[in-house]
């Protein structure tokens, strides 16, 4: 049985600045308030998550996260307004693409 | 400046059976009548092209190409009816997707 697959992402100067994976990472940070917790949810090492975030900020030339060090909660992270805007723009951009791809697939691969 | 990017492909049992790259390869074989000429057009070694074609046929469990060995033309390759159908279904499936992605991008990243 055949299945249609797709991917969508946004680049700046040839570097990925947001993708489905990176949007899920930002959303998980937003929900958990922690890069560590978000990385664990995504099943990647903290370092991998941190590197991707750093790459994104570096390409975009603005901060996606505010981080707090220490305190009783052991520090945390939350999205900056610009980080939230990027995430929401990407989510709106990607919204419903899966259904469009599926509809096109059904239409063009009628025997599947 | 941000740019939207996308990819589309078809899988069977988790293996890629056709993608933009593979569709271009089949189209080049169709036009040139030769895997060697098509691989040269795609700037890949013959072996890479042959391996991808072999993987596709192996996953699909049908032949995409008929190959002729020798003769005055030194052999050649052409698409089977099933190979042509797969290619045309994929091209129809993918047709216009670039414009849809671009329209959604413009709509959702208004400052770009």
What is the CATH superfamily label of chain A? Winged helix-like DNA-binding domain superfamily/Winged helix DNA-binding domain
Question: Which band does the percent of strand residues of chain A land in?
Answer: 15-25%
The overall pLDDT of chain A, averaged over residues, is 93
**Series of secondary-structure elements of chain A, N-terminal to C-terminal:** EEHHHEEHH
Rg of chain A, alpha carbons:
17 Å
Shape of chain A: elongated
Low-confidence stretches of chain A: none
- Helical percentage of chain A: 40-55%
Overall strand count of chain A: 4
The major pleated sheet of chain A works out as:
2 strands, antiparallel
CATH uppermost class of chain A:
Mainly Alpha
Task: Count every helix of chain A, treating DSSP H or I runs of 4 or more residues as helices.
Answer: 5
The second-level CATH architecture of chain A is Orthogonal Bundle
Distance between the termini of chain A: 6 Å
Account of the protein in words:
- The structure is a homodimer of 112-residue chains.
- The first copy, chain A, is of the alpha+beta class and 112 residues long.
- Chain A has one domain (11-108): Winged helix-like DNA-binding domain superfamily/Winged helix DNA-binding domain (Arc Repressor Mutant, subunit A), CATH 1.10.10.10.
- The first copy, chain A, has helices at residues 20-32, 35-41, 46-60, 81-94, 97-108, and strands at residues 2-12, 15-19, 65-68, 76-79.
- In chain A, a hairpin with a 2-residue loop joins strand 1 and strand 2 (15-19).
- In chain A, helix 1 packs across helix 2 and helix 2 packs across helix 3.
- At the A-B interface, strand 1, helix 4 and helix 5 of A face strand 1, helix 4 and helix 5 of B.
């Amino acid at each position: 049985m055949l299945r249609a697959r797709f991917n969508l992402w946004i680049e700046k100067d040839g570097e990925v600045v947001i993708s489905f994976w990176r949007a899920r990472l930002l959303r998980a940070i937003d929900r958990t308030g922690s890069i560590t917790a978000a990385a664990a949810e995504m099943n990647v090492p903290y370092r991998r998550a941190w590197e991707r975030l750093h790459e994104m900020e570096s390409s975009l030339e603005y901060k996606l996260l505010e981080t707090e060090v220490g305190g009783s909660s052991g520090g945390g992270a939350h999205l900056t307004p610009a980080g939230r805007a990027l995430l929401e723009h990407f989510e709106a951009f990607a919204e419903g693409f899966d259904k469009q791809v599926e509809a096109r697939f059904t239409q063009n691969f009628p025997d599947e």
